[in-house]
Amino acid sequence: MTVSKQETMKPTTKQKIMSGALAGVLMTSLGVAAPMVAMTQTANAAPADSLQAAKRLNRLLTNTKSMSADFSQTTKGANSGTFKGSMSVQRPNNFRWETKSPSQQLIVANGSTMWVYDKDLEQATKQTVDSQVGNTPALLLSGDPNKIAQNFKITQPYANKNYYVLYPKASDASFKNLSMSFSGGKPVMMVLNDNLGQTTSIKFSNIKLNPNLGSDQFKFTPPKGVDVINQ
Fold this sequence. Notes:
outer membrane lipoprotein receptor (LolB), chain A
């Protein structure tokens, strides 16, 4: 890891909360559904088999070529907090996640590189995006849907509901499961259960499916005077 400018300060508690919850969930990508969705379904609704569930989820994600929305993200656990902002995603491998309240942070990924910029700390971190999309859940909506089943066990608890739960196959995954829910073909909510016992839920509003998005949204140039960390 290299750092430009002077030695960078250690991350504050606030930054740890944002980067942990945000990057973790952002790297979980979009839309998804909470366990509460399943609890509201009828008891006699049979689950779909794994192959059928994978095909249905693949079809939904394939139809999502681009998306923009506002979000409200809440984490419960050691790093509890609520953040609000906006996001956009576009295939192949373009992602933008901008937190606006209560503090400002921007995460931008364009396939090979991901930037995490904290305006308050005047710090930007540059990382290489894992080439295996399936291992970075955040790229579910912007990566190749055909690779999802290779990296996740996909379940559909209720065959008549577009609610899916994904379990990573990798033994070193940073999360236990990711649940996703769709309404009208749009991802509307996401819930991530990580290995630290935390639950992060994201609700989407003002959703626009397949809008035309400018490429500038997925580019980032560190402002002058900002500490840059290369990882």
